[in-house]
């Protein structure tokens, strides 16, 4: 499988009592399909998988497949501390007809490169689906190092990596030394650099509520090869990216952004708390400015 375009890790809407609102979840999926994203990810960090029961995760992946059908690729996250749990999520993803898996380093356990590889290979043997690896040392404490990547080269299913380390040296290493593993941007404020180094996809939570801007940057850089236009779009997007990464309110901002588009996503699950009024107003101003800038850029370059 070749990952191309914008892949959205979908939010999970909640009612006021923190139960999952399946009707609004389906509405978010439909909105994103209509907006033109290229793939949808269920059970990513943005979807608050870590705060869900196994039964809830099974239900959401099945519901997503029912809604999406064959219109877009469905990627299912397998994140868990125990390898056995990740295998169970992967097997269920295959059963419901998912197109690929997102495989991250098990959090908190602090595994070695060899242990990460053995974890991923066990998932691969159980499901035999295309895999996008997820390197996020900021949350998982360790990198998927060269030993990990070399060991995973034994299976052709490991066909992409979402790189979220923020380290330009890793970006260069992946592009230069592992060209057989498709490079996917996982660090939003480095999207321009990722595309310059050959990335063909971008996993971006902000595309939940600003898909047009994210698609515009992908199209300018990866499709048109117009990095002058890409720099203009990136410059317009940087205030939003800075806001999303500020103060540990990432998921809350994404959920409020979707609410701004007319689908009330409700609160995050505890221990996270919703945005306060000042934070909501700040996000609304930044998004309004971004949308105006993207519209102007697209008109000028049409």
Give an account of the 3D structure:
Helix content is 50%, strand content 12%. By secondary structure, it is an alpha/beta fold. An eight-stranded parallel beta barrel has the order 1-2-3-4-5-6-7-8, surrounded by six helices. α10 runs antiparallel to α12. The chain is globular. The chain starts with a strand and ends with a helix. The mean pLDDT is 97.
Secondary structure layout plus pairing:
Blueprint: E1 5-9, H1 22-35, E2 39-42, H2 54-68, E3 74-77, H3 83-96, E4 100-104, H4 113-127, E5 131-135, H5 137-140, H6 146-152, E6 158-163, H7 168-177, E7 182-185, H8 191-196, E8 201-203, H9 211-223, H10 227-244, H11 250-260, H12 277-301
Parallel strand pairs: 1-2, 1-8, 2-3, 3-4, 4-5, 5-6, 6-7, 7-8
Helix pairs in contact: 1-2, 2-3, 3-4, 4-6, 9-10, 10-12, 11-12
Count of alpha and pi helical runs: 12
CATH topology: TIM Barrel
Shape-level CATH architecture = Alpha-Beta Barrel
Molecular shape: globular
Determine the structural class based on helices, strands and strand pairing.
alpha/beta
User: What does the average pLDDT come to?
Assistant: 97
Strand percentage lies at 5-15%
Overall helicity: 40-55%
Q: Report the radius of gyration as a whole number of Å.
A: 18 Å
Order of helices and strands: EHEHEHEHEHHEHEHEHHHH
Low-confidence stretches: none
CATH class: Alpha Beta
Nutshell version of this structure?
This protein is of the alpha/beta class and 302 residues long.
């Amino acid at each position: 499988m070749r990952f191309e375009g914008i892949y959205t890790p979908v939010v999970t809407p909640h009612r006021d009592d923190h139960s999952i609102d399946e009707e609004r979840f389906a509405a978010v999926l439909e909105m994103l399909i209509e907006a033109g994203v290229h793939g949808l990810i269920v059970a990513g960090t943005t979807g608050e998988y870590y705060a869900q029961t196994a039964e809830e995760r099974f239900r959401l992946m099945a519901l997503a497949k029912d809604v999406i059908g064959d219109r877009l690729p469905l990627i299912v996250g397998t994140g868990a501390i125990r390898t056995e749990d990740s295998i169970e999520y992967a097997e269920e993803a295959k059963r419901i007809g998912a197109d690929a898996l997102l495989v991250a380093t098990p959090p908190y356990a602090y595994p070695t490169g060899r242990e990460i590889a053995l974890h991923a290979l066990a998932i691969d043997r159980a499901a035999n689906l295309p895999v996008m690896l997820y390197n996020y040392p900021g949350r998982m404490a360790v990198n998927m190092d060269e030993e990990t990547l070399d060991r995973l080269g034994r299976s052709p299913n490991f066909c992409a990596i979402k790189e979220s380390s923020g380290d330009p040296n890793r970006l260069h290493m992946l592009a230069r030394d592992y060209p057989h593993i498709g490079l996917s941007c996982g660090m939003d404020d480095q999207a321009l650099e990722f595309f310059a180094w050959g990335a063909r996809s971008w996993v971006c939570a902000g595309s939940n509520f600003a898909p047009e801007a994210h698609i515009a940057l992908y199209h300018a850089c990866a499709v048109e090869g117009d990095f002058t236009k890409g720099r203009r779009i990136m410059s317009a997007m940087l205030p939003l990216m800075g806001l999303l990464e500020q103060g540990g309110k990432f998921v809350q901002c994404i959920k409020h952004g979707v609410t701004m588009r007319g689908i009330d996503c409700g609160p995050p699950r505890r221990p996270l708390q919703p945005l306060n009024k000042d934070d909501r107003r700040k996000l609304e101003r930044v998004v309004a400015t971004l949308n105006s800038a993207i519209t102007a850029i697209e008109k000028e370059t049409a």
